[in-house]
Write the structure tokens for this entry.
Amino acid sequence: MVTVILDIEAMDPAGKIAVGKVCITTSDQATQLIKGLKFRFYDHKIESMAALEDLYPAFEGISECLRPYHQKTKQDFGIAYEGFISIQQEGKYTFHILLPETSDIQLSLNDQKVSGNDERKFEVNLKKGMVPFDLKVTFSEGNDMFLPQMEGPGTSKNIVNANILFARINN
């Protein structure tokens, strides 16, 4: 815990000046959530998902969403997303990730890897709240498509909505 005592001087709308002290207590790593997911983009061939952790990204930042895209590329590349997904209702959720056969994917929710089938379909029971979300995707040279969808209680199969994705930033 960190405690900060600040001397303040403030003026109210009537023009009176107030002087005093404010005590603020926070955790050692004060954090907040913002819309979007953190991402790291790798612009070279990824030998394995395990190797991805040891590579240095070409660039990184915050993406407002899991961007669906379709592009022709002449190089191999990878993308790693991390953050939280806001689950509004407890229940069984299915994530469908449309990718070419030459691509590899790893999805983790609640810090647990979720197994998918050959159709890139991942099923998992989730509780209501902010669920840690981690998605890694590698692409090989060629015509690459990425279309992330989800369905669950009260939601039909649709592209993962940007309004439910959040990234943690340290202050």
